[in-house]
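Researcher: Structure for this, please.
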Amino acid sequence: MSKGNKPKKSAKGVGYKQQPSQKASPNPASAHPASNSTQSSPAPASTNPATGLNSKPTIKVQPEQTSLLAHSHIQAYLRTRHQSKLTKNDVTAVLRLSQHLRVFGLLSAVGYVNQSNEQRGEVRERTVPVWESLLGQFMAQTNPNRAELMRQVTQLAQNNSPEYIAQWRRVLTLSKHWNFWARAYAERGD
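Model: Predicted structure, token format:
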């Protein structure tokens, strides 16, 4: 390209700078690296863009895997209750768990399941079985035990807070998928 000829900017190419090693291509799909799925990114996945330093390698979990995991958790809950559909109360309990995790955290949610509440209210009776099942499965307990679940999460929070925060973030992501599958398996009032 000569000095006087400037490339025309399009709305699609704003912010994209052509690398010196790349040649201009007549094909607009190959001009933008993000739109060409066969090209790989030159930066390693473990590079921190803010500092440019390599950090610990991370494993990225695909949304499909998270959704499948959430689906299996909902299915396991249905099997333990000998149901094929979730009741309106079950769906509400899943949605409440998601909200509680967002506002109060994983430790608080497990504490709610574990507490010996003398009130024995209707809300608690319909909420605890769902929370216990989903949180127990998340913490990799096949037959969730409330006291063991509480001990496991408390130890994690006290002894390894970065891992606790990471688990909290994972369960927040997973809770969105629990919500989706709970609604998908909800009884219909048709």
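Researcher: Any notable elements?
Model: The radius of gyration is 24 Å. Residues 86-184 form one domain.
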